[in-house]
């Protein structure tokens, strides 16, 4: 049997193509051309040149991303410890400085005493949930507003609208996809020119 990069082609299938050529040559010609293109593509992917090109693109992308997020500081508010560790690892690998909080009260205090370039806010927090935490942060801000990006498993238009009503800038959905995460961060941190909040909390923070 003839062999291609995609595997073995059964000989009786080829004979069937040949026998039907006189009846419907155009569809068979299209099939043959499609098979040829797929074979060439698969063979190309098996070459060292292909892998060198892919590795080069990945390396350039990582270097570019590292430069984009250099010196960026993010507050990660995530109740799930495993998710928190995973997201923090992803961010720090790109040179991002990350502080973490596991509940809304701690997040509110930390955001009040340190300037962050963005806040990643889990919406399902113990005690004070993410929407309310975001609203309280907005009430205390003066000057430049910190981008607040919601994180949730809920994928609904109503959810996006609600996040906007509570003062959040954008949303990423769980499970977190790297491309979506970094695109969103770049959109609100780099492209918008926003660079953190400038406000301080009073002793009455828990009464807000």
TrEMBL record:
Cell wall biogenesis/degradation as UniProt keyword: no
A UniProt-annotated Pfam family: Response_reg
SMART domains xref list: REC (SM00448)
Keyword Lyase on entry: no
Record keywords, A-Z: Membrane, Phosphoprotein, Transmembrane, Transmembrane helix
Domain Response regulatory: from-to ranges: 73-189
PTM annotation (4-aspartylphosphate): residues: 122
Record-annotated membrane-spanning stretches: 27-44
Gene3D superfamilies: 3.40.50.2300
Gene Ontology process terms (BP): phosphorelay signal transduction system
CDD domains registered for this protein in UniProt: REC_hyHK_CKI1_RcsC-like
Classification via InterPro entries: CheY-like_superfamily, Sig_transdc_resp-reg_receiver
PANTHER family (alphabetical): HISTIDINE KINASE, HYBRID SIGNAL TRANSDUCTION HISTIDINE KINASE J
Name used for this protein in its record: Response regulatory domain-containing protein
């Amino acid at each position: 049997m003839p062999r291609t990069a995609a595997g073995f082609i059964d000989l009786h299938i080829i004979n069937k193509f040949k026998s039907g050529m006189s009846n419907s040559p155009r569809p068979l010609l299209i099939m043959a051309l499609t098979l040829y293109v797929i074979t060439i593509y698969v063979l190309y992917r098996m070459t060292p040149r292909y892998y060198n090109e892919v590795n080069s693109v990945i390396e350039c992308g990582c270097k570019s991303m590292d430069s984009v997020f250099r010196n960026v500081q993010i507050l990660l508010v995530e109740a799930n410890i495993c998710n928190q560790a995973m997201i923090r690892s992803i961010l720090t690998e790109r040179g991002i400085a990350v502080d973490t909080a596991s509940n809304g009260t701690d997040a509110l205090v930390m955001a009040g005493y340190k300037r962050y370039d963005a806040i990643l806010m889990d919406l399902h927090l113990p005690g004070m949930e993410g929407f309310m935490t975001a609203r309280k942060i907005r009430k205390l801000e003066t000057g430049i507003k910190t981008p607040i990006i919601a994180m949730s498993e809920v994928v609904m238009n109503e959810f996006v609208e609600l996040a906007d009503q509570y003062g959040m800038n954008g949303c990423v959905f769980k499970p977190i996809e790297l491309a979506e995460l970094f695109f969103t961060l770049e959109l609100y941190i780099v492209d918008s020119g926003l660079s953190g909040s400038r406000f301080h909390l009073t002793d009455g923070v828990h009464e807000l």
